[in-house]
């Protein structure tokens, strides 16, 4: 019994010390692991944030790449279109060259034809000119004959008009003399009447003492008669001037003929 209850304290203390060391080491490792876990969590969070940022950047880059691909495709299409247009332009130049050659040949043909037509027209024109000259000469001779006949008729008519004009002038002068005589006679009669009226008015004034009759009435009547006669005389003189002008124009025409 004494042997069973015997405990080796040194060994127990050593074991206890080792246990404490193990516990301390475990605590140390646990603290280190916690720190590492926190670091790992931070790294994970940073990694997720970085992943998200990279994902967004990737999307932007993908959009840019697609746009660049589209731009490159458009450039390729434009190059193809440019090549096609160059080919079309070359074809058009060749076609224009052929058209120009054909046009020059056609122009040369038309020039030759035009020269031939011009010669033919020149010959025809000369024939027409000669025929027209003959016709004009015949027409001129005929016109001269007609003019001579008309001139003779006009001379007769002008002579007749001159005689009529002289007769009309004489008649107008006679009429003017008659009107002047009539006007003088009217003035004399009016003067006599005016003298009688004035004498009667004076006698009436002396007998009745009334105011004399106004002389303005008689003066206005006399003035009216004189104006009427002057108008007639002016009209006659105007008619004479017109007849003389007509005679002068007719004389000028006759001289020209």
From TrEMBL:
InterPro entries, per the entry: CCDC152 (IPR038827)
Residue ranges, compositional bias (Low complexity): 198-211
Chain positions covered by the region annotation Disordered: 197-216
UniProt keywords, alphabetically: Coiled coil
Coiled coil: 82-189
Domain of life: Eukaryota
Protein name: Coiled-coil domain containing 152
Source organism (scientific name): Oryzias melastigma
Lineage: Eukaryota, Metazoa, Chordata, Craniata, Vertebrata
């Amino acid at each position: 019994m004494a042997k069973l209850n015997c405990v080796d304290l040194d060994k127990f203390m050593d074991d206890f010390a080792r246990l404490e060391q193990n516990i301390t080491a475990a605590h140390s490792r646990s603290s280190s692991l916690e720190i590492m876990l926190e670091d790992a969590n931070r790294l994970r969070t940073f990694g997720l944030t970085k992943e998200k940022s990279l994902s967004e950047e990737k999307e932007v880059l993908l959009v840019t790449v697609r746009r660049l691909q589209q731009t490159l495709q458009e450039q390729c299409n434009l190059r193809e279109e440019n090549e096609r247009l160059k080919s079309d332009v070359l074809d058009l130049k060749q076609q224009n060259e052929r058209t120009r050659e054909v046009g020059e040949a056609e122009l040369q043909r038309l020039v030759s034809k035009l020269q031939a037509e011009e010669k033919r027209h020149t010959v025809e024109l000369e024939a027409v000119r000669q025929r027209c000259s003959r016709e004009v000469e015949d027409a001129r001779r005929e016109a001269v004959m007609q003019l001579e006949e008309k001139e003779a008729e006009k001379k007769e008519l002008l002579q007749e008009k001159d005689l009529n004009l002289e007769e009309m002038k004489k008649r107008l002068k006679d009429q003017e003399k008659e009107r002047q005589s009539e006007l003088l006679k009217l003035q004399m009669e009016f003067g006599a009447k005016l003298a009688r009226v004035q004498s009667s008015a004076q006698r009436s004034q002396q007998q009745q003492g009334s105011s004399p009759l106004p002389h303005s009435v008689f003066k206005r009547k006399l003035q009216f008669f004189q104006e009427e006669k002057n108008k007639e005389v002016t009209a006659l003189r105007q008619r004479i001037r017109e007849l003389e002008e007509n005679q002068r124009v007719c004389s000028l025409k006759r001289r020209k003929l």
